[in-house]
């Protein structure tokens, strides 16, 4: 079936599902495959639950006209998403970066929603499946779509850009994330910059942090760039006033007090502000959006349990974000401060070095109550307590309860350190 024909079916059934556990009446089910599953085998189940059609790529499963046979379900989903994107009038803003993507996306969405009918990537559905699903959620009255793009290897951002074909783009930063897949920091810069490459090649607009020397170098003399800066008068001026514990900033003599912790969230706010200003969102609405945004999903959440104030930043971690979080927490340090740090994944050959560096940093800054969790941290040389498994630290906290103080909990998603909350307070 041609994409144009499938698109007519999509217009009649504009809700897409790839999960038989989430089937709404009259949706289109795309039978994707994975390493451990074959969606074709669940197509009949999707139809029984109310899907209008099931898109499959194995002929033996086609037993009625309710099954749409294609060469590749994944490629069809991606092509349909791009076709739909090109029929819509919504402006597409894509963003990527090593740290802060999801928070920045949510802030941009909050600001733009004050003036425009907007959508944004749900959760972290930012890969070769999530990006098409986001695009297919654009409605006829959608004016702005904020599309997050994640990557852990070269050419991935280029491919996602070809699917989304953004009108605008933004890179949060270049850090030590997914070093194994990208092949080091230079590989990260090259890979993330593929968004810039697409935008420049198609003469589109770029939002930028003009205080980031890498972004300045990458964009060079490119004309269609809109930047913010705390120091360069050539760009939109935004000043950081406080960051411990919460970010307070000033723009056009207007003070904005956020619920976000740490100076590293300053640039995330700046991106939302400069986009709001570019798209003529009134400053009072920008202020309202930023002050009303409350972090969740284990991202820099402030949680109080008894007499313990916890910064829960357990959604993800890499050496760059880990160092920034620890240095920010250092500003809140008291004799009762605790650091609970979990392994950082996908670091390849530099994993041992980077974990040792973080352990050394905590000692240099003068922290005394440091608990390190996971196989990687277990191998470092340090005077601090090390636990190879979550079960070990759980047992320790049960027998050595923390009664008061400030605490930072941070680690990669696979460590699921939010479970520690059950053993505190």
From TrEMBL:
Domain Mur ligase N-terminal catalytic: 16-81
Keyword Cell wall biogenesis/degradation: yes
Alphabetized HAMAP family for the sequence: MurF
Chain residues that bind ATP: 97-103
The family this protein is said to belong to: Belongs to the MurCDEF family. MurF subfamily.
Protein name in UniProt: UDP-N-acetylmuramoyl-tripeptide--D-alanyl-D-alanine ligase
InterPro entries: Mur-like_cat_sf, Mur_ligase_C, Mur_ligase_C_dom_sf, Mur_ligase_cen, Mur_ligase_N, MurCDEF_CellWall_CoF430Synth, MurE/MurF_N, UDP-N-AcMur_synth
Pfam annotation, one family: Mur_ligase
Gene3D superfamilies linked to this entry: Mur ligase, C-terminal domain, Mur-like, catalytic domain, MurE/MurF, N-terminal domain
Subcellular location per the Swiss-Prot or TrEMBL entry: Cytoplasm
Molecular function, one GO term: UDP-N-acetylmuramoylalanyl-D-glutamyl-2,6-diaminopimelate-D-alanyl-D-alanine ligase activity
Pathway note: Cell wall biogenesis; peptidoglycan biosynthesis
Function, in words: Involved in cell wall formation. Catalyzes the final step in the synthesis of UDP-N-acetylmuramoyl-pentapeptide, the precursor of murein.
Domain Mur ligase central per the UniProt entry, residue ranges: 96-275
Catalyzed reactions per annotation: D-alanyl-D-alanine + UDP-N-acetyl-alpha-D-muramoyl-L-alanyl-gamma-D-glutamyl-meso-2,6-diaminopimelate + ATP = UDP-N-acetyl-alpha-D-muramoyl-L-alanyl-gamma-D-glutamyl-meso-2,6-diaminopimeloyl-D-alanyl-D-alanine + ADP + phosphate + H(+)
Main location: cytoplasm
Native source organism of the sequence: Flagellimonas meridianipacifica
A cellular component annotation (GO) from this entry: cytoplasm
Residue ranges of domain Mur ligase C-terminal in the record: 299-376
GO biological process, one term: peptidoglycan biosynthetic process
Top-level taxon of the source organism: Bacteria
Enzyme class (EC, first level): ligase
SUPFAM superfamilies: MurD-like peptide ligases, catalytic domain, MurD-like peptide ligases, peptide-binding domain, MurE/MurF N-terminal domain
UniProt-listed Enzyme Commission number(s): 6.3.2.10
UniProt entry tagged with the keyword Nucleotide-binding: yes
Keywords, sorted A to Z: ATP-binding, Cell cycle, Cell division, Cell shape, Cell wall biogenesis/degradation, Cytoplasm, Ligase, Nucleotide-binding, Peptidoglycan synthesis
């Amino acid at each position: 079936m041609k994409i144009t024909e499938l698109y007519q079916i999509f217009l009649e059934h504009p809700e897409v599902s790839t999960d038989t556990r989430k089937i709404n009446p009259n949706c289109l089910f795309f039978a994707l495959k994975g390493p451990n599953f074959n969606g074709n085998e669940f197509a009949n189940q999707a139809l029984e639950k109310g899907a209008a059609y099931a898109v499959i790529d194995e002929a033996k499963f086609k037993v009625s006209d309710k099954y749409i046979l294609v060469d590749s379900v994944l490629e069809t989903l991606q092509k349909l998403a791009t076709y739909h994107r090109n029929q819509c009038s919504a402006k597409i803003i894509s963003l990527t970066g090593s740290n802060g993507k999801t928070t920045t996306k949510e802030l941009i969405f909050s600001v733009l929603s004050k003036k425009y009918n907007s959508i944004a990537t749900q959760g972290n559905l930012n890969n070769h499946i999530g990006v098409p699903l986001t695009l297919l959620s654009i409605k006829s009255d959608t004016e702005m779509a904020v599309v997050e793009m994640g990557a852990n290897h070269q050419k991935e951002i280029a491919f996602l850009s070809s699917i989304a074909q953004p009108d605008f783009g933004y890179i949060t930063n270049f850090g030590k994330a997914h070093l194994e897949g990208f092949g080091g920091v230079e590989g990260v810069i090259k890979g993330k910059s593929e968004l810039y490459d697409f935008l420049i090649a198609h003469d589109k607009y770029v939002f930028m942090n003009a205080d980031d020397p890498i972004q300045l170098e990458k964009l060079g003399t490119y004309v269609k760039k809109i930047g913010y800066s705390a120091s360069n008068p050539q760009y939109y001026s935004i000043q950081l006033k406080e960051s411990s514990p919460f970010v307070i900033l000033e723009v056009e003599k207007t003070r904005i007090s956020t619920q976000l912790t740490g100076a590293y969230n300053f640039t995330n706010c700046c991106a939302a502000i400069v986009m709001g200003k570019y798209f003529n969102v009134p400053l009072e609405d920008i202020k309202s959006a930023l002050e009303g945004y409350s972090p969740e999903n284990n991202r820099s959440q402030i949680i109080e349990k008894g007499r313990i104030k916890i910064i829960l930043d357990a959604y993800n971690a890499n050496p760059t974000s880990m160092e920034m979080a620890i240095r920010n927490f250092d500003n809140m340090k008291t004799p009762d401060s605790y650091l609970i740090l979990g392994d950082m994944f996908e670091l390849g050959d530099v994993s041992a070095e980077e974990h040792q560096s973080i352990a050394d940093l905590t000692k240099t800054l003068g922290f005394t109550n440091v608990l390190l969790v996971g196989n990687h941290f277990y191998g470092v040389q340090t005077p601090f307590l090390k636990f190879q498994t979550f079960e070990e630290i759980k047992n320790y906290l049960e027998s050595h309860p923390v009664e008061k103080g400030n605490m930072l909990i941070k680690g990669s998603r696979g460590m699921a350190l939010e479970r520690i909350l059950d053993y505190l307070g």
